[in-house]
Design a protein that fits this description.
Elements: H1 2-20, H2 26-30, E1 48-49, E2 62-69, E3 81-83, E4 86-91, E5 95-100, E6 106-111, E7 132-134, E8 143-147, E9 152-157, E10 163-168, E11 183-185, E12 188-191, E13 203-208, E14 214-219, H3 232-238, H4 245-250, E15 252-253, E16 260-263, E17 268-272, E18 276-277, H5 281-284, E19 296-301, E20 307-312, E21 327-334, E22 337-344, E23 350-355, E24 361-366, E25 373-377, E26 382-385, E27 397-399, E28 413-414, E29 421-427, E30 430-432, H6 460-470, E31 472-479, E32 484-491, E33 499-502, E34 506-510, E35 515-520, E36 526-531, E37 541-545, E38 548-555, H7 559-564, E39 578-584, H8 612-625, H9 627-630, H10 648-652, H11 654-658, H12 677-692, H13 702-720, H14 722-727, H15 729-732
Length: 733
């Protein structure tokens, strides 16, 4: 009987795999065979490949068989899709490519021609996490769906690269952007958006894959309470909000900028929603309330978008703890009963397992360093906040995790062989304090949190010690049944790549430092490594062509952590957007690594004022207007220009660049709507100060080395006991 089941299962698998090679429809995406047909490979989004030609015994034979250089030089976050021997992939600035999956030959290139001015309406650079595929039946053309940065959803002919239709999914004059990958469900293209930091009201839309006609739209937070809400679910949510700032200027937030998952068995769509707008709940909803459906998992009917259930991961979100991180579907044996579950490791640091039919919370356990909450109460399903969480009333707090999250957009992977979830963790504490100025600013971050307040240690030695001690990454193998990590691999930098697990018992991950690594799925031993010349952050995939297994991943430095944390995370190499493709063999394609190290402080092009009041004013304005691209405290990663190394000519043109938009063609818009000449000069004065305070190649004296180790171990002690860091912050800041 068992043999019969195996043979029957194999026949089904082969038939589906063959069908998927012809038509990309629901059945094909459910069972993609040797292809990779959706963002997470199939609808479960487990990112587990059943391919095992490449395994623990031969992974050391992997070599770069081909690579393809893209025209962009920003963050690369896209997961490639593969169908019928063709790779479909997107890049920053909303470009899409079709490449021969065996040779890397370019078949076509599509440019959405997004205006560089739209960069100011984005959180974390002009990135894009991927495309979607759909055909439906043999009479329809295969189409590639791209969510453009400016809010358009574009259907592209997969053979020609020519657009079939395009719809504007967001209000044109708005703060919305799209960076996430679309999903196709029952002939409908689902797309969300981002923009909560700038003031937006979240929603997800479904469009007919053939015509582009909108089929439904679901808002994630209520609108003006004086108006009728769009659904009974929003009417119910309205009681959890207070005040009027959230709908009048902040928009409420809850943008669904990444995770969209379909369950064919239950015919439900699951949406992960984002943070509040603004972050500070006392501004957003001063009378209290949970603020549904912020930071929540929503289950909706696929055909209509009708609400079914919700679970709020972070009630009253106060820290930018989004629940937009990857949602994974699986079957788990819990207490002797097989449960259909949905799993998530959101920003807040707890790993959640829910029944995906009912939304019942099955477990919630810390997978990362957490100080904002002690635990999740399993009776109520609510986190129990600590004293550090209330930064509005305690004068400011260091909190784990920071707004970057314990886990951000980088996708995790669930192995069907090991039963483990592999999570790309980042350990970064954040300093939260309430912003004294809560006036709404057009096209600027409006968080209500002074996240860019200078909390730099009083010396560069202390800054380096704190960074080395507290900021790092990990690859975590999490057991959702035992509710603990089985093993961890430490990374020196925090923003590392997405995960692929395979039936060859391998786990693949890229790093911020530019390595692409294969690990033993059972114990985390490093089995193979490739050295790249840019960060490898995107999710890897595996596929076969002509019976040979390939592994592919995109490289390119970017994303919010690398943009904002700055110099301490700088890699002195080029930032080349590139697709790397590997298979077993010896192809001698490894190129020497390039360097882009800044070796000198350029001459000042103007006379620095040195006025302390002007510098302080410039520091505040820089934090509100510049830090999200050029780095907090002007410490850039080099992905965009490090303003402490401005040339003499840039100093001379500073006002024209900042106010006049002289470099808008590079995404640097003019700030004439929000800044005046005095403001611009104040920012310039602040940058002059930061330039003059550059350490001399970080060469430490004997006394500075002693200071370093004292501060390092003090920071480690503060990590273990957060009250120490919070009680002594003013001594070193």
């Amino acid at each position: 009987m068992q043999q019969l089941k195996i043979i029957s299962g194999l026949l089904v698998y082969l038939s589906v795999a063959y069908a998927s090679a012809e038509v990309v429809n629901t059945a094909a995406i459910e069972h993609p065979g040797a292809d990779w047909l959706s963002y997470g490979r199939d609808y479960s989004e487990q990112r587990f490949s059943p391919l095992d030609e490449i395994n623990q015994d031969n992974v050391d034979e992997l070599d770069l068989v081909w690579s393809f250089d893209f025209s962009t030089a920003r963050g690369m976050e896209a997961t490639p899709l593969v169908h019928n021997g063709v790779i479909y992939i997107s890049t920053g600035w909303s470009h899409a490519y079709a490449l021969d999956a065996k040779t890397g030959e370019e078949l076509w290139h599509f440019d959405a021609e997004v205006s560089k001015k739209h960069l100011v309406k984005t959180c974390c650079g002009p990135v894009n996490r991927g495309v979607a595929l759909w055909q439906g039946d043999e009479d329809q053309p295969l189409q590639v769906f791209l969510g453009a940065l400016d809010g358009r959803l574009i259907a592209i002919d997969a053979k020609t690269g020519e657009p079939n239709w395009s719809v504007q999914t967001t209000p044109i004059e708005s703060n919305y952007s799209i960076t996430g990958a679309p999903r196709v469900v029952k002939g409908m293209v689902l797309i969300g958006n981002g923009g909560s930091e700038l003031g937006a009201r979240g929603f997800v839309s479904a469009y007919d894959a053939v015509t582009g006609e909108r089929r439904w739209r679901v808002y994630t937070v209520p609108k003006d309470p004086k108006q009728p809400q769009e659904s009974p679910a929003l009417e119910a949510a309205l009681a959890t909000w207070s005040g009027d700032y959230w709908h009048r200027e902040g928009g409420g937030g809850g943008t669904a900028w990444d995770s969209l998952v379909y369950d064919p068995a239950l015919d439900l769509v699951y949406i992960g929603t984002g943070n509040g707008s603004p972050w500070n709940r006392e501004i957003r909803s001063p009378g209290g309330g949970d603020n549904l459906y912020l930071s929540s998992i929503l289950a909706l009917e696929a055909d209509t978008g009708k609400y079914v259930w919700h679970y709020q991961v972070t009630p009253q979100d106060n820290w930018d703890y989004t629940a937009t991180q990857q949602l994974v579907l699986a079957e788990l044996m819990i207490d002797g009963v097989e449960r259909s579950v949905i799993m998530q490791a959101p920003k807040n640091g707890f790993f959640y397992v829910l029944d995906r039919l009912t939304g019942e919370l099955l477990s919630a356990d810390a997978y990362a360093q957490i100080s904002w909450a002690s635990h999740v109460d399993m009776k109520t399903g609510r986190p129990v906040e600590t004293e550090y969480a209330d930064y509005q009333n305690n004068g400011g707090s260091y909190i784990w995790p920071s707004p970057y999250g314990a886990h951000n957009w980088q996708p995790m992977s669930f192995s069907q062989n090991t039963g483990l979830m592999y999570i790309p963790l980042q350990n970064i504490p954040g300093y939260f304090s309430a912003d004294a100025d809560v006036s709404y600013r057009i096209n600027r971050w409006n968080t209500g949190v002074d996240i860019n307040e200078s909390r730099d240690p009083k010396s560069w030695v202390a800054a380096k010690a704190s960074m080395d001690a507290l900021v790092y990454g990990e690859l975590v193998a999490w057991d959702p049944l035992e509710k603990r990590s089985r093993w961890r691999v430490r990374h020196p930098k925090p923003s590392n790549g997405g995960i692929l697990s395979t039936a060859g018992d391998l786990v693949f991950q890229g790093t911020q430092e530019g390595q692409f690594v294969a690990y033993d799925a059972f114990n985390g031993d490093k089995l193979w490594q490739f050295e790249s010349d840019s960060a490898v952050l995107a999710g890897p995939i595996s596929y076969t062509v002509d019976g040979e297994q390939y592994v592919a991943v995109a490289q390119g430095s970017g994303g919010v952590v690398m943009l904002t944390i700055g110099e301490e995370l700088k890699r002195n190499r080029v930032n080349q957007n590139r697709l790397l493709v590997f298979k077993r063999g010896d192809f001698n394609r490894t190129a020497p690594l390039a360097s882009n190290e800044l070796t000198a402080i350029m001459a000042l092009g103007h006379e620095a004022s040195g006025d302390s009041a002007s510098i302080k004013h410039g520091q505040t304005l820089y934090g509100r207007n510049c830090a999200s691209c050029h780095g907090i405290s002007a410490k850039s990663n080099g992905i965009v220009p490090d303003l402490r190394y401005m040339s003499e000519q840039t100093h001379k043109e500073f006002v024209n660049i900042v106010l006049g938009g002289a470099k808008v063609h590079r995404g640097m818009i003019g700030f004439y709507e929000t800044l005046d000449l005095n403001d611009t000069e104040a920012i310039h004065d602040f940058l002059d100060q930061q330039q003059q305070q550059l350490p001399d190649k970080l060469a430490m004296s004997a006394m500075q080395k002693i200071e370093y180790w004292v501060m390092y171990w003090s920071a480690k002690l503060g990590e273990k006991f957060p009250f120490i860091m919070n009680s002594t912050r003013d001594m070193v800041m």
